[in-house]
DNA sequence: TCAAAAGTGTTAAGTGTACACCCATGA
DNA sequence: TCATGGGTGTACACTTAACACTTTTGA
């Protein structure tokens, strides 16, 4: 029943954010085009992973399919955050050359999603897929730098209003890991004592009787996030911006 | 240079929010299809205004064009908030009939925008365009109800983190008007004294030496919003959700 | 003179912020 | 035994929330 023909002018791009307990990283794919000489590719840079949407595929399905091919996972937090489709969005010579080599129309709408997960979960099979620190990205093809910037802006907003930060952490995490995740996304520093006080009194940040050993000197208590408790307790706090 | 041919499978839909000092309203267009008998249209309901994107048109341009045709204005706050493009999103018989009558493909991606303005600013020339209270919408064609719900969700978020509420008000407004705007969008009630205190001490809510007379018994002081001052003073308050 | 909306203060509770040292462990 | 990251408490400032009456005007 599925129609696997691709829609020529509609694609989905995936911005995969991975947290490695230090930084936020982006998963990128190598884009290489050889024409004359295998040793000197005409194009050799990095791009987000994306693909055209199938004729009978939902947008979310398409995003999940692309993400799964990339990482092997499907049940990962994702959000459709924006669609990029201006006619002039691909203007660079290399990008046009690339599209030509693929026989793709020049004007493509990209529905962009971002995904959040702990970077360690992803097995990088080969060198064609790599994590890059968000703060130190390589040269990117197409308008993918803009897409990433937009994704990160949206993420920051999201982190400030919903408990998506936990998507970056393993099921069991320490409070310091949580703190560093917040600091990385919001690009701030937080006072450790104040942070812990605040975190500990949230009922949905549940202390476990387990400690993480090995990774540091003193074993650190582990916590888990309970979505159930969160949904039951946190009444939408109506913070007016102004 | 502009290519005015329409892209068959890509459209823009506009959710126009208008505040009338009491409620949030949505601007809808009548959708009517006559086949056999002019007196008994096959379709007679309401939809968001939208159109297909031109071949050489930016998405934002397309949104502005549609909005301008509808209201006569162009410099109005707008936001692209989501793209709707699932294959099953149009499944209702009437909707399919409508598309057939227009010779349009069944699978169309709709890039959806919302606009904010005071409802009074819009001149409704004829009965084919009307404001409906958000809380009392008529039966809507396509998946436009879902689009509106999504738009409103996004708007609420936006209102809590940025000063977009002022887009709903005329340049000069009273504090009570501002309060009602907040109450309408966030669906709460706010204590009048506390609200005024908070508002008055914001430097970017500027008191004027003018009063609004006539509309009520006691003349009310007018205020204006200064975007300049807002941008200079309000350092992003890093409110962590949790 | 009255109806209707505008405008005004105080207090108590809670929340955020600044700040520096001891603890438990592995090497 | 020491180096490393884990973990803790207090005081002050600020913000929020609850609460009811007076003022000004047009009709």
TrEMBL record, chains A, B:
<feature type="domain" description="NrtR DNA-binding winged helix">
    <location>
        <begin position="166"/>
        <end position="225"/>
    </location>
</feature>
<protein>
    <submittedName>
        <fullName>NUDIX hydrolase</fullName>
    </submittedName>
</protein>
<dbReference type="GO" id="GO:0016787">
    <property type="term" value="F:hydrolase activity"/>
</dbReference>
<dbReference type="Pfam" id="PF21906">
    <property type="entry name" value="WHD_NrtR"/>
</dbReference>
<dbReference type="InterPro" id="IPR015797">
    <property type="entry name" value="NUDIX_hydrolase-like_dom_sf"/>
</dbReference>
<dbReference type="InterPro" id="IPR054105">
    <property type="entry name" value="WHD_NrtR"/>
</dbReference>
<dbReference type="InterPro" id="IPR036388">
    <property type="entry name" value="WH-like_DNA-bd_sf"/>
</dbReference>
<dbReference type="InterPro" id="IPR036390">
    <property type="entry name" value="WH_DNA-bd_sf"/>
</dbReference>
<keyword id="KW-0378">Hydrolase</keyword>
